[in-house]
């Protein structure tokens, strides 16, 4: 498949990387759900993507979040290889919230990180792994500060 843009390439890569797992899903419904998620909850992350690899990372995060919420589910029994891929995907995208009062994160901290204190890949990784940090990033976007 020849991809016309980075988004199509990211979906093609995701499909290839998780082929065994996706055999147990209605892939059209999965990709529709991920696209909807990207337009709503994931818009802040998508805006910062620079290439297909960045977008694929967001696609994987979207899949994990939607699966964990029950928004997408299997339609066929999963093979052992498919289950291993699903387990790995869910483990990589497990949200963690770490609150340490001495290092309380503020919107200003997130803005400074976005503006260069962290590399873009480290910033994205932090957004994906820390729900509070991501929420503060979304607040900064809504306020027009990033």
Short précis:
By secondary structure, this protein is an all-alpha fold. The chain contains 9 helices and no strands. Helix 8 (120-129) crosses helix 9.
Describe the structure.
This protein has 9 helices and no strands. It is mainly α and 146 residues long. It has 2 domains: 1-94; 95-146, no CATH class. α1 (6-17) packs across α5 (52-69), α3 crosses α5 (52-69) and α7 (107-117) packs across α9. It is elongated, with a radius of gyration of 16 Å. The model has no long low-confidence stretch (mean pLDDT 85).
**Major beta-sheet overview:** none
Number of strands: 0
Subunit arrangement of the protein:
single chain
Taking Cα atoms only, what radius of gyration do you get, to the nearest Å?
Answer: 16 Å
Spell out the helices and strands N to C. HHHHHHHHH
Uncertain runs are none
How many discrete structural domains? 2
Helix content: 55-70%
* Strand content range: under 5%
State the end-to-end distance: 35 Å
Sum up the overall morphology in one term.
elongated
Category by helix and strand content: mainly alpha
Number of helices: 9
Average pLDDT for all residues: 85
């Amino acid at each position: 498949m020849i991809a016309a843009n980075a988004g199509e390439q990211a979906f093609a890569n995701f499909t290839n990387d998780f082929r065994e797992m996706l055999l147990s899903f209605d892939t059209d419904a999965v990709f529709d759900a991920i696209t909807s998620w990207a337009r709503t909850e994931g818009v802040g992350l998508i805006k910062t993507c620079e290439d297909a690899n960045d977008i694929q990372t967001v696609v994987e995060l979207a899949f994990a979040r939607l699966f964990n919420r029950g928004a997408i589910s299997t339609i066929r029994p999963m093979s052992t290889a498919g289950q291993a891929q699903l387990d790995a995907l869910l483990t990589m995208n497990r949200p963690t919230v770490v609150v340490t009062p001495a290092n309380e994160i503020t919107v200003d901290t997130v803005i400074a990180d976005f503006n260069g204190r962290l590399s873009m890949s480290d910033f994205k990784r932090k957004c994906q792994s820390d729900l509070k940090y991501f929420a503060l990033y979304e607040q900064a976007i809504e306020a027009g500060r990033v």
